[in-house]
Amino acid sequence: MTESHKVTATPMDPETSLRRGVANSEEARRWCRERAIEDIECIVPDQAGVARGKLMPTGKFFDDKPMTLPAAIFTQTITGDYPDRDEEEYAESITDGDLIFRPDFSTLAVVPWASDPTAHVIHNAYHRDGRPVEVSPRRVLQQVIQLYNDAGIQPVVAPELEFYLVKPNLDPDYPLEPPVGRSGRTERARQAYSISAVNEFEALFDDIYEFSEAQGLEIDTLAHEAGTAQMEINLRHGDPVELADQVFLFKRTIREAALRHQMYATFMAKPIAAEPGSAMHIHHSVVSLETGDNIFSTPDGGASKEFLYYIAGLQTYIPRAMAMMAPFVNSYRRITPHTSAPINMRWGYDNRTVGLRVPLSDPAARRVENRVPSSDANPYLAIAASLACGYLGLFNKLEPDEPAAGTGYDAPFTLPRSILDAVQLLENTPELVEIFGSPFVSIYRGIKETEYETFMGVISPWEREYLLLSV
């Protein structure tokens, strides 16, 4: 995160602001007319962070009739199935009635990879009586931020997103392989922070930067991570909804750019068994709405008591909210010792073996990095969960333990080991259910249980290897 003592969101470059976002429908009409936009992708992030919605001709988009979609859009699993059990608290799911979707024009941007002039805009969901849909991931995050704002403070976040580049994989029974770079060879050794390894995919990253610039998305840094053909993109710090939108759009952007170069970009948490997993680390700070000051630092530059309360909240509640930060069966394959992934909620200064790292910084930029979320997480839900945990520590004045002096892997494994364990912890934590709402928690549980049952219907190679002739 950029060191700044009085900031509530990343100031957007004037040139960037011309590329993404307008204030209202009238400005959107003019924006589309100036760019000869023919079609608009009306997109909505679902519970998995997948873009759902409709493609509309520009004229139809501006005919003042809101987009409607079935309420089941927020109960769909990653396999396209639906939980068997209807949730009475989410009435539309029983009748599969329509929800109303209205554009957030601040997210309007071109779709740079489209063959015809096309734009996309993220939509918010509403019930037919005008109430925001409480189970929409974007709304879940907005409600958490409102808790902070009601207390006179504003959370600031900076996500770091890891992903792998792999050869096209047409048969899911075969393991993933690294792609061929410009040298004509594939990586065979780990190349953490190697510039030459990044340059192997120079043309791809040129497209990623070009696509990002066209959409007004701001990349802070790009680096090669520890895994073979594993990369990381860091985003500039700012407003949590704005940053969640950017992660949501970056995932689409990176995948599309990779396809142009006959590669896949995957955000699976653990796509390759022998390689490190991929994370979405989230840096947190909190500023006063009145002064803009970072409340984690005292006037004399020391760590404030609020900073320690916040860390304690993350320590206490992240294991109970982990289903929103590690949402799939595969997510828990990443959580293993000695792989740059945490196994517990110890905290420490500049320590990458613990769940909560306090980076070296000036007092004005004091922050804490949550290293638990995986890159497969829905950014809206992962950020909402992390912020909720910190909020509970801040306002319940919880006390953290002592910072870890050595490796966090010497401490016990205290994070949930499976998605079912994580969902059960979430559902049985009243403080989190109150923040997220029981309709969301109930629907989310149903989705995750259904996905798990689908997974259990698949027999793995491990079972055939070790059980077929031995038991």
Task: Walk me through this protein's architecture.
Residues 1-22 are annotated as: Disordered. Keywords: ATP-binding, Ligase, Magnesium, Nucleotide-binding. Residues 137-471 form the GS catalytic domain. This protein folds into 2 domains: 18-133, Ubiquitin-like (UB roll) (Roll), CATH 3.10.20; 143-436, Creatine Kinase, Chain A, domain 2 (2-Layer Sandwich), CATH 3.30.590.10. The protein is globular and about 60 Å long. With 471 residues, it is of the alpha+beta class. The chain has helices at 14-19, 25-34, 58-61, 92-95, 137-150, 195-199, 202-215, 240-260, 305-321, 331-334, 379-396, 419-427, 430-436, 438-456, 461-466, and strands at residues 39-45, 51-57, 67-70, 98-103, 109-110, 118-126, 153-166, 219-224, 230-235, 264-266, 280-288, 347-349, 356-358, 368-370. Mean pLDDT is 93; it is low at 1-17.
